[in-house]
């Protein structure tokens, strides 16, 4: 089910009820970009510690925005069956009264989403507004002071046209006369009401169904009565409620405290924090603590399936859709009992008929399905005793306990980030060191180009003539082929031998020892 700004408020109560009744909620997000190329050297690297990766990703999250958020709500029905309500929410930053929001587009990300049929018109024209706590505070202050602004030039054109129509009409209108403004978006309807009421003391405004706004000429006493009534659609709290948009659903998720499931979900969590809660803090530990308070139970299916690949010879896969396809194969499906029936609700049945990869709602559905099938497989293999025909979701959570709150860390010094405790110490594969001779001005990019045909290395300069190479696994032929290379000599990195500081310390110690020996010898010589 696709949800935009026009129908979001009406669906919110039903969404709230479904989330409260859910066993768990799966989430996926699509962005206008993944990793920013600014500043330089901001790309993820195998050398990264969790803190370094967080600081890099934080800069990217601040530059890019969320285009689409997918939620799949999994509810346990009778007889080992889960019913799924899957939603695509198109999002667009709130422009109502807050500081104008700027965001960046990555050309490769835009092409990627376009290739999979992403509708940018819905994103731009019908995106649900949202704001974080800092932006909400600014809006409240401006509404209180009557100093809010309209930032969009297109919005200003719509407002000017509406104001011109009303001012021309009101000059000739009698008291209690009305006029109707047509074809207004939800956001425009609210902005026009605020502008008209602020500019004209003898008008009253009221929404009239879909895209229509009634404007009525009234006397000041009548207007004062209407403003103090509970039916005023421009009460400050109602304006805030509209401007918060999707943030209202975010807080429903937070209060429900349901397990939140994702796949490689670090960037998803960072965008949730930045866009709907608070700007991302500089402190990595503060970010972890905030997320754990918001969502006490996180399950990353990438972490779970990596464990299954290692322990149960689960086929190696690289994408979520591949994991789903492997799990759906008959060879893995336990016979007794078979894994749960996963049924899409009647109003969300499109995904049962058509694959929609990289559509947020579809990927959220795959993610939740992978969780259920993986948990069932782990439960069946965790005991030699027979598993009951209708396992409860709490039984699944028990076998998933060691993976809870551990979010996959892509190509870095640790396997996962632990949101409920300390991260494991960084542990890198063996390093290689490249010693350069007779090739002045060589840089990291040129070293990368030289070795990329052999293996995927990350490169970091060690000294003027030395570079470190790091890979998840390197081939021995790198050492063999470059052992006697005239310009690039490759060897295994030894800390005591290659670290510049240790080298410097050893040289200084050698000099000190030499002078001490010389002084000793000269001191013993006869005068």
TrEMBL record:
<dbReference type="InterPro" id="IPR006941">
    <property type="entry name" value="RNase_CAF1"/>
</dbReference>
<dbReference type="GO" id="GO:1990431">
    <property type="term" value="P:priRNA 3'-end processing"/>
</dbReference>
<keyword id="KW-0540">Nuclease</keyword>
<keyword id="KW-1133">Transmembrane helix</keyword>
<dbReference type="InterPro" id="IPR036397">
    <property type="entry name" value="RNaseH_sf"/>
</dbReference>
<dbReference type="InterPro" id="IPR012337">
    <property type="entry name" value="RNaseH-like_sf"/>
</dbReference>
<dbReference type="GO" id="GO:1990432">
    <property type="term" value="P:siRNA 3'-end processing"/>
</dbReference>
<keyword id="KW-0256">Endoplasmic reticulum</keyword>
<dbReference type="GO" id="GO:0003723">
    <property type="term" value="F:RNA binding"/>
</dbReference>
<keyword id="KW-0479">Metal-binding</keyword>
<dbReference type="GO" id="GO:0046872">
    <property type="term" value="F:metal ion binding"/>
</dbReference>
<protein>
    <recommendedName>
        <fullName>Poly(A)-specific ribonuclease PNLDC1</fullName>
    </recommendedName>
</protein>
<keyword id="KW-0694">RNA-binding</keyword>
<keyword id="KW-0269">Exonuclease</keyword>
<dbReference type="GO" id="GO:0005634">
    <property type="term" value="C:nucleus"/>
</dbReference>
<dbReference type="GO" id="GO:0032502">
    <property type="term" value="P:developmental process"/>
</dbReference>
<keyword id="KW-0472">Membrane</keyword>
<dbReference type="GO" id="GO:0005789">
    <property type="term" value="C:endoplasmic reticulum membrane"/>
</dbReference>
<comment type="similarity">
    <text>Belongs to the CAF1 family.</text>
</comment>
<keyword id="KW-0812">Transmembrane</keyword>
<dbReference type="GO" id="GO:0000289">
    <property type="term" value="P:nuclear-transcribed mRNA poly(A) tail shortening"/>
</dbReference>
<comment type="function">
    <text>3'-exoribonuclease that has a preference for poly(A) tails of mRNAs, thereby efficiently degrading poly(A) tails. Exonucleolytic degradation of the poly(A) tail is often the first step in the decay of eukaryotic mRNAs and is also used to silence certain maternal mRNAs translationally during oocyte maturation and early embryonic development. May act as a regulator of multipotency in embryonic stem cells. Is a critical factor for proper spermatogenesis, involved in pre-piRNAs processing to generate mature piRNAs.</text>
</comment>
<dbReference type="Pfam" id="PF04857">
    <property type="entry name" value="CAF1"/>
</dbReference>
<keyword id="KW-0460">Magnesium</keyword>
<dbReference type="GO" id="GO:0004535">
    <property type="term" value="F:poly(A)-specific ribonuclease activity"/>
</dbReference>
<dbReference type="InterPro" id="IPR051181">
    <property type="entry name" value="CAF1_poly(A)_ribonucleases"/>
</dbReference>
<keyword id="KW-0378">Hydrolase</keyword>
